[in-house]
Known about the structure:
- This protein has a domain at 17-44.
- Helices cover 82% and strands 0% of the residues.
- The protein contains 2 helices and no strands.
- The model has no long low-confidence stretch (mean pLDDT 76).
Amino acid sequence: MLQRRRWDAVFSGPQHFLRNKRREGEEYRSEMSAFELRKNLPVL
């Protein structure tokens, strides 16, 4: 049981890191820059 906990502690870090990076990327892609707004707004 103790070995299982150690194993989970070692490998849970990268999972959290990757999950946070995916969220960060989704937030980044969901926002438009000022350039994109000027370029695309007249089209809408």
